């Protein structure tokens, strides 16, 4: 039914419109902004986007709100669908957001959300920064090995990274991974709990542990890395987090939540 990895937004959008009839319906997009040229092909009655980095847009049936999804200035029962791609892993106030989306949905309305990588995934640090005009992100310039964000403290990881990277870049990485509000640092079970408590019905759930890029990292040298094979890393992750969080391999999640 769906592809495994939350790839680009237009691909996920195509899955959404292939599954749900958008023509003549009101749709709220959480995060991102599907271009009007593509939205118009589906002939919705209303398409509203909400994102903290959006610019305000008012083009009749195509609207953009600069804001957060837990506070959307529309009346109750305004939307037939909520569409979201690669956004839920960034939403800190997820419970409040789900409550707001439930308020905004019409009876029998649907949330379609495809997102990842989540925090407990191998690349759940979701590294995506620009330093000295150079882009470092988790899918192209992979400088943070898998699960290091879960098995090392900020101080430990800083020491490890400084064996191969300049100190300013290291500090930018540490800030992003452990302190920034760019990601919500929720584990798989945290999402399931939020969905269960939302009052919405989880109608569909698909997950994947697929990592769709090659693992190529700088050669770090530090005593903490001695004997640190993939098997040892996995064992450490399970030791540190397995008692509380069961699914440590889910990378991307795709859900359909219905407002019965």
UniProtKB/TrEMBL annotation:
CDD domains in the record: AdoMet_MTases
A Pfam family this chain is assigned to: Methyltransf_11
Single annotated GO MF: S-adenosylmethionine-dependent methyltransferase activity
Annotated ranges, domain Methyltransferase type: 62-112
Listed InterPro entries: Methyltransf_11, SAM-dependent_MTases_sf
Stated name of the protein: Methyltransferase type 11 domain-containing protein
Organism listed in the record: Tumebacillus avium
């Amino acid at each position: 039914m769906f592809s495994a990895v939350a790839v680009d937004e237009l691909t996920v959008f195509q899955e959404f419109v292939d599954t749900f009839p958008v023509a003549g319906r009101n749709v709220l997009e959480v995060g991102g902004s599907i271009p009007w040229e593509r939205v118009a092909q589906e002939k919705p009655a209303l398409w509203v986007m909400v994102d903290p980095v959006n610019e305000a847009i008012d083009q009749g049936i195509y609207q953009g709100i600069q804001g957060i999804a837990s506070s959307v200035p529309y009346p109750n029962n305004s939307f037939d669908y909520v569409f979201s791609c690669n956004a839920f892993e960034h939403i800190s106030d997820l419970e409040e957001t789900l409550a707001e989306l439930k308020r905004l949905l019409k009876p029998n309305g649907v949330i379609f959300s495809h997102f990842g990588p989540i925090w407990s995934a191998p690349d759940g640090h979701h590294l995506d920064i620009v330093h000295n005009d150079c882009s470092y992100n988790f899918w192209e310039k992979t400088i943070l090995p898998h699960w290091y964000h879960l098995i090392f403290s900020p101080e430990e990881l800083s020491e490890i990274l400084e064996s191969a990277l300049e100190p300013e870049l290291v500090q930018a990485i540490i800030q992003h991974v452990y302190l920034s509000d760019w990601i919500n640092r929720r584990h798989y079970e945290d999402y399931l709990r939020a969905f269960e408590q939302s009052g919405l019905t989880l109608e569909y759930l698909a997950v994947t542990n697929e990592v769709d890029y090659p693992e190529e990292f700088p050669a770090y040298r530090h005593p903490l890395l001695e004997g640190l094979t993939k098997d040892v890393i996995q064992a450490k992750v399970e030791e540190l987090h397995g008692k509380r969080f069961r699914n440590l391999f889910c990378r991307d999640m795709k859900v359909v939540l219905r407002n019965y």
